[in-house]
Predict the 3D structure of the following.
Amino acid sequence: MDIGLIGLGKMGANMAERLVRGGHRVVAFDRSPDAVAASVARGSTGVGSLSELVDALGTGTKVVWVMVPAGAPTQATIDSLALLLAPGDILIDGGNSNYKQTQLRAETLATKQIMMLDAGTSGGIWGLENGYCLMIGGPTAAYEHCKPIFTTLAPAEGELHVDSKAGAGHFTKMVHNGIEYAMMQAYGEGLEIIEKSPFDVDQAKLTAVWNHGSVVRSWLLELLADFLAKDPQLETLQAHVDDSGEGRWTVDAAVEFGAPAYTIASSLFARFGSRENDAYGLKVLSALRSSFGGHPVKKVNE
């Protein structure tokens, strides 16, 4: 298929390359000419504006995937595309947008007969090789049309049309990230208990062992074991853990729907607290965010 991809950051650039490898033609745009040039070197067709991107997709149903930061950048991009796309075209938002904003955007686009899919996308900087887990919401007809794209981006059995209602993809990805907060917090707390114990435990070797047959094994734990092998005491990091919003939204949704979310709420507040102390367990969280998502970390002396 032909697909336009807007946003060539840590994830977008790798997604473009994975699509090219899968035989799709990717028309790529980013505000950074250097990012576009790098994507062209990896097989994409580069353009210098949104209008050029839409024109380059030719005739028939046009599919454009937006992969820019949530909030104002996403809104501005969608507003511009709404003036360029035609009835029957499909716009996919693969960023971590708030699902309520997605619902409003889908309603606005529907007045122009432009279909919108919201694709919650998980995989971080490792998705190029491993594939991306996709949670997709929006019209069934649009999903079926774009199925070859989702099949290429995802590993086997790694994509799901979660609901035909707009916002369902971003909602489930939001909850996914809330769960991620809690898992990371549990690893951090457990390893801090071990760190403060009288036992001389090699944390890198221990986390590696836990990934072989243990009920707590996970990809997060694999990443943590790799990080600890390089920096066993996490001496290069501050215990400063940022949050990008999804955990807050998950807690907000729990309050709205009356669903108990003790662990997720606690892990969110722990991140707030991390900006005031320097605990080992919170350094574990910082290491994990850097490892799976390429997020910036606070280094010692910064």
Q: What stands out?
A: The longest strand covers residues 115-122.
